Amino acid sequence: MGIKANTVTTKREWRQIYAIYGMEQWQTLLFLLCHAIFFSLSSVVFLFYFDPICAFFNSFLSLGAAARFAAGFSGAVLGISAVCLFFAAGNFFYSALPLHYDMAQRMVGSVNDWSTVKTALDIGCGRGILLNAVATQLKKTGSSGRVVGLDRSKRTTLSTLRTANMEGVQEYVTCREGDVRSLPFGDNYFDVVVSGVFFHTVGKEYGPRTVEAAAERMRVLGEMVRVLKPDGVGVVWDLMHVPEYVQRLQDLKMEDIRVSERVTAFMVSSHIVTFRKPSQHIAGPGEVRLDWRC
């Protein structure tokens, strides 16, 4: 087992993906679309009622000739805002479904030999796009392995089992509810551990850029390393905080650390990080470190 540089992406229609997995965080998409429509209608109102609006600006603000400029500028801002919001909604939908599926295939392709994998873990599995990609790969290679999906919500794990059934990989999938900060598994348990666009959500109650939130993310990364077997492979796709993960993995003396090219997801930068856990972790001269927790 090892890390493979080249990956192969299996294309799939977004309608097929949506039919199986639905839309997580649909409230965000609806929020963006509603505001985009509101700003679009407002800009149309400014266009068709430009002269009355100019008169309104002039009567209340006494701008004189500048009233037309103020009205035109306001209408332009509304129009540009509508375009930006429609673009954001489109990117959110693309990131949540087609891109998520494609990145899951790339993450699966980062592991060289799935036929030797007996146990795998998906941290923060959600509705199972990455989880089922792993299970499908196990099925294709004829492996007798199993993949465990861990999520904080029991309701989500039930949805994930339904999607695994729809993908025809239910016999390869197990779902568990648990705390990602303290994984309910023993040390050196899994051959492969993956996680897709999840780590950045850990510690969000402290704020995304706080020291406390960063510490929580590092704690989950440490747990990921802890449950990974020696010579096991870890694959993380996440947003924004990837340099932190790379630094922590270097501190933990992980090997074969690789970072993919930048991919825009959910309007921000994202990367895939792959690494391999060494067979022995040497913390210093003659000292073998057994505790992987952060």
From TrEMBL:
InterPro entries: Methyltransf_11 (IPR013216), SAM-dependent_MTases_sf (IPR029063). Residues 121-234 form the Methyltransferase type domain. One of its GO terms (molecular function) is S-adenosylmethionine-dependent methyltransferase activity. SUPFAM superfamilies: S-adenosyl-L-methionine-dependent methyltransferases. The keyword Transmembrane applies. Keywords: Membrane, Transmembrane, Transmembrane helix. The chain crosses the membrane at residues 29-50, 70-97. This is Methyltransferase type 11 domain-containing protein. The lineage of its organism: Eukaryota, Viridiplantae, Streptophyta, Embryophyta, Tracheophyta.
